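subagent[fold] <- orchestrator: predict structure for attached chain, return tokens only, no commentary.
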Amino acid sequence: MNLFDIVGPIMVGPSSSHTAGAVKIGYVARKLLAEPIQKAEILLYGSFLLTGKGHGTHLALVAGLLGMKPDDIRIPHSLEIAEEQGIAITFGEADLREAHPNSVLLVLTGIDGRELRVVAESIGGSRINIASIDDLSANFSGDYPTLIVHNQDQPGHIAEVTSMLSHKSVNIAEMRLYRASRGGNAVMVIECDQEVPKESIAWLRHLEGVHKVTYYSLEEE
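subagent[fold] -> orchestrator:
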């Protein structure tokens, strides 16, 4: 436990979960899309849906999608700023099963046509969990550079990825593996202590059996 676990984050309030956490969710999703946002569908669930408006959750999510941090004084004006930038924002209700009460489904479209579906949870004290990406389990915090590899479940892929990281002197902080079935779709979620070089991410995208590579960087835009 550190000081911020006790006193809370530096933020524009009123709530660390409904406001600060929501900003962080939007910010992480923006970086995962990896291109400027053209359209965002924001589907709220649970407490985010029922009480979020009073806490400014909708404004906080949009602020994060615009690249703002939890202490940005422009958060209350995020919808107007999004409109000025030509970003189409819509809100609705998410149909999620057994999700955390502070959850949101973000359906994003970038200016070059890239699409991304993110289910994220605000779990308290501004901490978040990215539960899924494009309907496949992810479960990472956004506190570390994170590599997400969607691949065919076949021998050798894990070794190729971990060997590449070792060769680039990137230490693995935590690694989680998911698969739909033996030989089916699989996901590697690797939180790292260092940034993964861009050329290494490009190399991974061209590996046989790799369907998609998504990377979350801590580097400022």
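orchestrator: received. Logging for downstream: Helices lie at 3-7, 16-33, 47-55, 57-65, 78-84, 157-167, 198-205. The CA atoms of residues 38 and 87 lie 5 Å apart.
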